[in-house]
Specification:
Elements lengths: L3 H4 L3 H7 L6 H12 L20 E7 L5 H4 L16 H4 L23 E4 L4 E4 L3 H4 L5 E7 L6 H10 L9 H9 L9 E5 L25 E3 L17 H22 L2 H24 L6 H7 L9 H13 L4 E6 L8 H25 L6 E6 L3 E2 L16 E2 L3 E6 L7 E3 L1 E2 L6 E3 L4 H11 L9 E3 L2 E3 L15
Parallel strand pairs: 1-7, 1-8, 4-12, 5-6, 5-7
Antiparallel strand pairs: 2-3, 4-11, 8-11, 9-10, 13-14, 15-16
């Protein structure tokens, strides 16, 4: 640690060495005040702020931007406008991406997919999502999501961290920091990315801890023989050897911490200990042989393929059963600038059955009432066609003004549709919901006042929702 000699010049180091001494307890209290929170497995002081409806979150993130008007926001009236120019009064002065800004024509492309009403609530859902339609009465569909970003990287970063620029803590890291962990043998925050889903790249900073202590960043699970990298001991190195090694390493780190008082040293000790416990818990977690045949049938044939979206959904259920606070699944490939009808159908076939099965599985195990499930991407798609429009084919560009998501479980009122868009699914018509509003609502369901969960960094108290955010009350049970 090349910066450690500089710590000799700090007040903390001076007082810790002072003969008069201010006392380690006093110094610890000052340090905790500076950090803005007690950084421990028990979470932020005085959180939850009120009785939570949910204890944990599973976020099914569909990276790329699913088309809202082909899935959850039907616009049958557009059929009579097939191929006509999108009116200037609708498009207005919207900033376009470089992929369509030079287009001479912006022809309207109605969805070729039929919508039907489902359940007692009559939720309108596309024929592409028959399994999601089977849980229509359990989900709340929000049609009025909107974002400030029009390109993937800043838009995904915004959804994950509450800010379009990299460097802020992710949603799961805030939950780990605020609520701690329910498990002593698994991390509070786990991320999985579907194998072979293609599409836009995803970066580890999307589930990083930013300026929060590093123990709150996600642990990424992978398919294959090593679900968590660097967790296995080398051949010939026994568990007893590992225990003795960690005790000696911890003692050395304690010496270093007493010398410099760097909180990251304690984080390092905690992470080594968590890794040791995970050596025993992860093999049991990822061994699906105990799951009955009916569960694999429920999640679909891909659930037997490690790293698939279906398999990851099943693992998500097993993770929350064991006390993991936040599980995020990333499935790429929803960026359909061309050949949308075929490509969108492929994505839905990969995800629809398992997404619905997860909700049903949680319910039958008594976990849905206190597990919040969120499904959605970073923005929507344009009503106008990108490229050449034909009777059977069309593409859609990025669209930040409106898109759809759904939520289930954990205090959500099932069978409701919130918000509305105009006749072109282009502009918001009622009840807008921002990214900050979504985050505020998620925290509220977990018993957290989003305005009070803060962390002091560089002289400012930061929060996930920045200086924005209102709880979306109509979707709450």
């Amino acid at each position: 640690m090349t910066h450690e000699p500089n710590l000799d010049l700090t007040r903390r180091h001076f007082f810790s060495r002072s003969a008069a001494g201010l006392g380690i307890a006093t110094l610890s209290n000052l340090l905790a005040s500076d950090l803005g929170a007690a950084d421990g497995q028990d979470g932020f002081p005085r959180v939850p702020h009120f009785a939570p409806r949910a204890k944990r979150v599973i976020y099914l993130f569909q990276s790329g931007g699913p088309s809202q008007m082909d899935l959850f926001d039907p616009k049958p009236g557009l059929l009579e406008h097939q191929g006509t120019e999108l009116p200037d009064s609708i498009r207005g002065n919207q900033r376009l991406t470089g992929m369509t800004a030079a287009q001479v024509s912006f022809p309207v492309a109605p969805s070729k997919f039929a919508f039907s009403r489902h359940g007692e609530s009559g939720q309108e859902i596309s024929e592409l999502l028959p399994y999601t339609a089977s849980i229509a009465d359990k989900i709340a569909i929000v049609r009025s999501m909107h974002t400030e970003q029009i390109n993937h990287d800043p838009a995904i970063t915004y959804l994950q961290t509450g800010h379009q620029l990299a460097g802020r803590p992710s949603l799961g890291s805030w939950l780990s920091y605020g609520l701690g962990s329910e498990s002593s043998s698994l991390p509070a925050f786990v991320v999985m990315v579907s194998q072979g889903s293609g599409g836009q790249p995803l970066y580890s900073r999307l589930w990083g801890s930013g300026f929060l202590p590093t123990r709150h960043q996600a642990v990424k699970f992978r398919a294959g023989r090593e679900p968590v990298l660097y967790l296995n001991d080398p051949e010939g190195f026994s568990r007893e050897d590992r225990r003795r090694y960690l005790e000696d390493l911890s003692a050395l780190n304690r010496v270093r911490f007493d010398e410099y008082g760097d909180p990251e040293i304690e984080n390092r000790i905690a992470q080594y200990e968590m890794a040791y416990r995970m050596q025993a818990s992860v093999p049991e977690l990822t061994d699906l042989s105990s799951e009955p045949e009916g569960i694999f049938e429920m999640y679909g044939k891909d659930s037997r393929t490690p790293g698939s979206y279906a398999s990851n959904c099943l693992l998500a259920r097993r993770l929350v059963e064991r006390g993991v606070r936040c599980v995020q699944l990333f499935h790429r490939g929803w960026d359909h600038h061309g050949n949308l009808p075929n490509r969108l159908a492929q994505k839905c076939s990969q995800t629809d059955q398992a997404s619905a099965a997860l909700v049903k599985d949680l319910e039958q195990r008594g976990l849905l009432d206190d597990t919040l499930v969120v499904w959605g991407g970073e923005f929507g798609r344009t009503v106008y066609c990108q490229g050449k429009l034909t009777a059977q084919d069309y593409g859609r560009d990025h669209h930040p003004r409106c898109f759809s998501i759904w939520l289930a479980g954990g205090g959500i009122q099932g069978g409701v549709t919130h918000g509305a868009t105009d006749d072109y699914s282009y502009n918001l018509a009622a009840d807008p919901v921002s990214v900050h509003d979504l985050h505020a609502t998620m925290l509220h369901l977990l018993g957290v006042d989003h305005k009070r969960l803060t962390f002091k960094y560089q002289g400012r108290h930061f929060r996930l929702t920045d200086v924005h955010g209102e709880v979306v009350q109509p979707v709450l049970a």
